[in-house]
Amino acid sequence: MKSVAPATLGSRAFYKYMTAAVAPRPIALASTVDKYGRVNLSPFSFFNYVGIDPPIIVFSPGRRGRDNSYKDTALNLTEVPEVVVNMVTFDMVQQMSLSSAEYERGVNEFEKVGFTMLPAEQVKPPRVAESPAQFECKVLETKEIGTMVLVIAEVVLAHFAESILDENGQIDQTRTDWVARMGGDWYARASGDAIFEVPRPQHGIGVDALPESVRHSKLLTGNDLGMLGGLTEFPAREEIRAFGATVAMLNLREEARLGCQYLPDVLHAHAKKLLKQGETATALLTLLLPEPFSDE
After folding, report:
1. Is residue 200 part of a domain?
2. pLDDT at 262
């Protein structure tokens, strides 16, 4: 494994590693205004939602690498501490990218990139009409650490397009098409087969409860073990014995015998198929069959 120390490599070179590794990152398309009311629109991928009560977002319009000067967003927030954070979808990505170009201070990027300005209700900066999720925010604090200008803001009003809502008025992730930032010129699109659900276990048995033969399986991955460890109960011996006597399991044993295959490998391969189908409890029963009992 390659080890890299920021102090040795240098901040700009280390930045390339970090933006490629800490990825994908959500994009804050931030609109601000200066004291004259001039609008600025810029994207930032050093951004996230970090607080519930009150709802807090943070983003960082760091200083420019070439001359350490402040970006227009940071300057505007010192004059008018309000911002609208607009989320970015795949249909917006090229215009969003164009808004990152360094136009002169006072230039309205909405006009340059072709986005539609939509008045906000509780803050001065406008919203991006094309964005399906817009957050009107009041800036609570800005904090400088090195070249970073960290903006901490409270969401005072949010707007969500009907197109991404389900029948209960909640956001349906299958109807969204978010874009996230990666390293270099790379982006990620969070839609279709790229998104998936992982049920959150309340209190699983843990991977450490699995037999050593399962933990060190040549066929099962870390994800497979995580699914098994997320089960809330370990099956009783009687349940394992009864399962082993089912026609399906007897057929697997016969398949291994006739094919001169190692039985645990056959069982582990079958369990892996069950895990892909979401049949986690049955997969664990399958994996426990070859384990001898201490009193036998």
Report:
1. no
2. 84
Query: How much is the pLDDT for 296?
Result: 42
Q: Which residue in 85, 84, 86, 82 sits closest to 139, CA to CA?
A: 82
Residues 60, 144, single domain; the answer is yes
Q: Which residue has the tokens 């990139």?
A: 113
Q: Kindly report the backbone phi and psi dihedral angles of residue 269, in degrees, each rounded to the nearest multiple of 5, phi listed first.
A: -65, -40
Nearest of 107, 125, 161 to residue 31 by alpha carbon = 125
Confidence at residue 203, expressed as pLDDT on a 0 to 100 scale: 85
- By three-state DSSP, how is residue 145 classified? strand
Q: How far apart are CA 213 and CA 235, in angstroms?
A: 17
Give how many domains the chain has, as a whole number.
2
Check whether 294 has a pLDDT greater than 60. Answer: no
d(CA 109, CA 115): 8
- Other Cβ atoms closer than 10 A to 216: 10
Within 13 Å of residue 240, how many CA atoms lie on the same side as its CB? 15
Please tell me what DSSP assigns to residue 236.
Answer: P
From the list 148, 151, 160, 159, the residue with the least C-alpha distance to 80 is 151
Taking the complete model, does pTM exceed 0.85, yes or no?
A: yes
Side by side, the strands of the sheet bearing 178-181 are 25-26, 178-181, 187-190
Distances (CA, A) of 31 to 60, 65, 104, 121, 195: 13, 22, 15, 14, 28
Please state, in angstroms and rounded to a whole number, the distance separating the CA atoms of residues 153 and 139. Answer: 4
| Helix, coil or strand: residue 224 | helix
Check which CATH number belongs to the domain holding 57 and give it.
Answer: 2.30.110.10
Helix (H) or strand (E) holding 263: helix 263-276
Q: Which amino acid is at 209?
A: A
In whole angstroms, what is the distance from residue 265 CA to residue 4 CA?
40
